[in-house]
Amino acid sequence: MAIVFFYGGVFAKENRIFSLINYYLEKINAIETELKANASQKILEEKEVQPPTNDTTKPQGDTEGAISQSHPEDDSTTNASQEAEGPKEEESPENLEPKKENDVIVSRMKTPKNVKSIYITVGTIASDYGWELIDKLIESGGNAVVIDIEHGGGLLAFTPKNEYLTSINPGSTLLDHFPEIIDKLHKKGLYVIARQVVFNDPYVGSRKPEWRIQNKWGGLYDYRWLDPSKPGVQNYNLYIMQEVANLGFDEVQFDYIRFPAAAHQTLDYYYDEEKFSRTDVINDFLSKARRLADDHDIQLSVDVFGAIVWGNVDWKIVGQDPVEIAKYVDAIYPMTYPSHVSPGYYGYTNPWGAPYGFVHDSIKNFVEKADGNAEIRTWVQGFPLRINGFGTWFMNDQIKATYDAGGAGFAIWSPGNRYSYSWPSFGIEVTPPEQEVSEEGAGE
């Protein structure tokens, strides 16, 4: 979840300067990641690959609208000409929803009533420092952790078992022991969440240009962005989700589950924009992910822009309608970072110095729009951008606002995994409804 800025007319001019700076920083990071990947991994040449041959079963629950899957028969019933031709287009993994493969026995933790978590990168969880953070998290009262499953640019942090995935993203061996890591975290009593970045993927974008977004005047858009409406892009991410489920995670959390916020009027997508909207595309993908999540008994959640509950512009641009999204997922994590809005935004005069009001009202709006269909868990800003006197008070304000607004927990985002100011905030208690006091001072 790189630091991003809201578009759609809600920004002051100064935010565009920060956005430009952030753009180049992200580009540098992506290039560095790609160089490291190329140095350590032998990239496989692209070729047509037979679809997975493992036995599959239908996902449990509602499968209306699912694309049917037909696997090739064994060698005794397949003639030579069929083998030479390869799979038909409709049988290609790019066009087929993944179904559950042979059962993989995993144990999942029950979702905590109020998730209290931190974010940890691939490099951190692979280090001693990562386990120091885990111990401090537990000591402070935390009960969950969000872990990247990819390096910063999109290279998987483990070696996938699916041949189709391997042909596109061979992964690295750094966290091939993910099942052991998850088992260790479970024994410590932690709920383990996999952060999967979906439609912003420079690693794959540089290797499969046909999956990228096109410009209306010709040529390809930013190599970091894949076209969310292309079947191959969606199914590639569903295959990754299936791998994640089989590793033993308790929840898969989609990040960058959206269309680009910039240049939205000049981009040409695969879907028919006269018949469908961007929200239709996102919801279609989530409906497929929901079926797969139910099939694997894993929780499904998404990260969304905090601005989509303010006004009616931003959610249409990026395709994130909180009312509809809540129908497909178990939890929504709004990124209501105070640093990402300017003073005066919808009447909030000082979100950088007094974040409680902005976070509270944002989360309250999300809770109302979710209407009980999905839990709302705040992404708490754990980094000091724009915040004078950044410290524990800033975390306290955001977490207390979350609880007071009816949120079901939080995750603290610190890109560098620095949480010294965050630990005291885990002790904040949820105020029981019967103890809340009305404006008139009467107990409710």
The number of distinct structural domains comes to: 1
Largest sheet: 9 strands, parallel
Total number of beta strands = 11
Mean pLDDT: 82
Percent strand equals 5-15%
Order of helices and strands: HHEHHEHHEHEHEEHEHHEHEEHE
Sheet/helix structural class: alpha/beta
SSE map:
Elements: H1 13-40, H2 80-85, E1 115-120, H3 122-125, H4 128-140, E2 144-148, H5 163-168, H6 178-187, E3 191-197, H7 202-205, E4 214-215, H8 231-247, E5 251-255, E6 267-268, H9 278-296, E7 299-305, H10 314-318, H11 322-325, E8 331-335, H12 356-370, E9 375-376, E10 378-381, H13 392-404, E11 409-413
Helix pairs in contact: 8-9, 12-13
Overview features:
11% strand, 444 residues, two-stranded antiparallel sheet, nine-stranded parallel beta sheet, TIM Barrel, alpha/beta, 13 helices, 32% helix
Give your account of this protein's structure:
The model is unreliable at 2-89 and 434-444 (pLDDT under 50). This protein has 13 helices and eleven strands. Helices cover 32% and strands 11% of the residues. With 444 residues, the chain is an alpha/beta fold. It has helices spanning 13-40, 80-85, 122-125, 128-140, 163-168, 178-187, 202-205, 231-247, 278-296, 314-318, 322-325, 356-370, 392-404, and strands at residues 115-120, 144-148, 191-197, 214-215, 251-255, 267-268, 299-305, 331-335, 375-376, 378-381, 409-413. It has a single domain (13-43, 112-435), classed as Glycosidases (TIM Barrel), CATH 3.20.20. Strand 8, helix 12 and strand 9 (375-376) form a beta-alpha-beta unit.
